[in-house]
Amino acid sequence: MTKAEFVDLLARDGRIGSKKAASETVEAVLETISSALARGESVSFTGFGKFSVAERGQRQGVNPRTGERITIAAGRVPRFSAGAALKSRVKG
To answer: Would you say 51 and 58 are in contact if contact means Cβ atoms under 8 Å apart?
Structure first.
C-alpha cells in the first residue's frame, strides 16, 4: 500500500473527515516520528510497536562493481519493533 492509498483509505474511514485532513494528519504523524528519531528519541505506541534509533558500527564491505574491499562508516539507523498486539493480528 502506498502513502496515497493509505490516505484514501483513512479518508473513507469517516473519523478524520476529508481527504485533505487525512493527508495532513498522515504528514503530521510521519514528521513528528521522524523529528523524534532525528533527536535520538524513541516513539512507542502500546500494542502497535516502537520506533527507535540504533547505532551501527564501522564495518567492511565490497564494492559490487570492482570487488574492492571498502570501509563503511558508522552511523545511526531507524528501527521498528512490532508490539504484541500487532504481531498477534498479523499472525491471524
So the answer is: no
Record the cell numbers describing residue 64, joined without a space.
559490487
Q: Round to whole Å and give the CA distance between 58 and 44.
A: 28
CA–CA gap between residue 69 and residue 59 (Å, rounded): 10
How many structural domains are present in the chain?
A: 1
The number of C-alpha atoms within 13 Å of 21 and in the hemisphere containing its C-beta is: 9
Residues of the chain with pLDDT under 50: none
Give the global pTM: 0.81
Helix or strand holding residue 44 (H, E) = strand 43-45
Closest CA to 49 of 86, 5, 77, 3: 86
CATH of the domain at 10: 4.10.520.10
Residue numbers of the domain that contains 12:
3-91
